């Protein structure tokens, strides 16, 4: 069976917390978003605009109040049961008493994979994020950036078609963050993973994404979608005119200024 070309589809999605009760909050309203297989989408917007809520809906950690969420062509619930996605959040969330290798093995263990296969797959993932030499270490022996890489390796260990990331690099210094951005892009390209990546950083969104989805709060909704066509990211990408144009456009969209239609990076 071939995998569906659409990785994620949100259609007419509203999310109201505490509906009909005190403290009712409309976290999301009228959200339509379609993400293609292998596409990298960054979600950006001010605090409280519903970015995490959107991610949690896709992960089926919460249910929409109305509308539908489809992942890999199936209802979000089915996709969760089939482990169609991996999750990495700001806190790496590693188990301190397990070695790095055994942390990465965990989702495979939960899926019932045999020991030999788990070892091989986890080793391969650690290789991918450049941590093969740290397999026997414990999380406390690693830096914050290394722990994040372990979390990414763990999220990718089941070879999920979709990766959900909520500010995974938020707590890291700028240099580590830029290195991990490159590693993430390399890993996603190598594994053809689709990604939804929540960030507060405009340059990070522009550098990583094929499309930047801009959201605004009260009620949370999508107010702009900016395609980024910077081609393969290299050393010079962060200094390129297209990169700065992208940043300007995302900033304008966040401020609610109208964004010209043409694609970022296409002008030269
Ligand atoms: N479990 C919940 N119960 C009630 N309200 C909630 C719940 N989760 C989120 N909200 C509300 O929904 C809105 C969107 O929250 P969400 O965490 O999705 O925003 P966000 O864009 O991710 O914010 P941040 O950038 O600060 O992480 C906020 O007003 C928040 O208070």
From TrEMBL:
Keyword Transport among record annotations: yes
Entry's Gene Ontology molecular function annotations: ATP binding; ATP hydrolysis activity
Residue stretches making up the ABC transporter domain: 8-242
Domain of life: Bacteria
UniProtKB keywords: ATP-binding, Nucleotide-binding, Transport
Classification via InterPro entries: AAA+_ATPase, ABC_transporter-like_ATP-bd, ABC_transporter-like_CS, ABC_transporter_ATP-bind, P-loop_NTPase
Designated name of the protein: NitT/TauT family transport system ATP-binding protein
Organism: Catenuloplanes atrovinosus
SUPFAM superfamilies: P-loop containing nucleoside triphosphate hydrolases (SSF52540)
